[in-house]
Design brief:
about 450 residues, alpha+beta, L,D-transpeptidase catalytic domain-like, SH3 type barrels, 2 domains, eight-stranded mixed sheet, five-stranded antiparallel sheet, 6 helices, globular
Amino acid sequence: MRNRLNALLTCVLAASVLAACSPSTQSVQEATPVNTGTLESETQFGALNLSSAQRGQQVYVASEELRMRTSPEVREDNIAHSARMNDKLEIVNPAPIGKNKFIQVRVLESKDRELIGKTLYTAADYLDSKPVQRMSGSTSQSDSKYFVITNVATEIVRLYERCQAPETCQNKMVMEFKATVGNNSKEMRSDVGVYKVTGWTKFYQSGPYAGYYRPGYPELPKANQRDAWLGRARPEGFKGPRGAFGWYTAMVGPNPHGQWMHGTIGWGADKEKFVRFQDSFLGSIVDIFAALGSHGCTRMSNEAIAFMRAKLPVGATYIKIYAREALADPSRAGYPTADQRGRFDYILTNLGPGQTNTRHDIPSREAVLAAGTPQANWMEEGTFSYDQTPDAQKGDHYKLGDKSFRGVFYVDQGTISADYQHPQHEKLGIGGASGGFPSFVKAGAVLP
């Protein structure tokens, strides 16, 4: 009984980690980005040539987020909202001011109506002379042969290999995994929409949540040491549980509202504890006192997110839906039986912590060995055994009711029926790109 009470207390204390999912705050040990508001957007440079820029020239925001200021200084009290990618601006004065190269602009078109018509200052490095295509949110088919669909209704993430043959074929499900999505509250629910993977960060840390690993951090907890993640394993200066974002974090866009896909805390016997716990009897009790969902992110085990990292390049399609599930082919022809599980051999290294899209962050054993990474840099090695047999599940995570569902998600083909629509419900937000779904997830589609 004492052990159960200890577990209950530990999981109540850990509930905050399960909601860790906001990009608006940064680690106390990382530099605060002055231009965009998120570290990831700081890497999204534009191609504006300031030497030839003219008064009255129309330019476009090239990063997903760009702070607009009422004066050219870097201060917290002069930020007047943030523009978004491809918002249209007019140059009022092209003369750059200070090291951040702030210029004076007028906002012509913006997703934030509060900005339209205002004359403000912003960083020229994040502007372009034409609309940005690389993260525009286009729903044309991705160059990646893999894509992901998360069904928020059932909290299941599925990885697919896209049909790329000239003849008629179907997408092939590679893996399905029970994950955790946003808690059922106004501030924490997961949005639906069509996105792209815009970047991968290894051992991400943000706000009070220290990364899974950094040089100089306390030793990682061993198996069955859940409380250590909440206490002695935390570096000085951090208040939240260590490793809230796990091994890898996939940033997505456009308009993700801070909702990403990432790993979780824990390892050894605890490696899936904080993903599976909320579905247990004890978890249902804890959920009365503390929200066990995320702040909208899709949280997976570290092994599962490592597998995703090895398969999904930047630019891959990531789709979130809220749908009923079905099998297009109830016989599941071509799929292995339920006891024939997939195998992913991995090696996690300590190279590239906190960095984005580096050559060191592909965790497959094959890639690490091919790179000749010394064993001194190996942190963990093992095999992820995953479900490669599609199963249609029932679910209504946010209790929207039967009348809210439109159409069907065919889990064995990775497609949606022609009549599928996101539920038009006040509880469900929509992010991502406009323009509908890519052709390869539309049932019956034949790809060139």
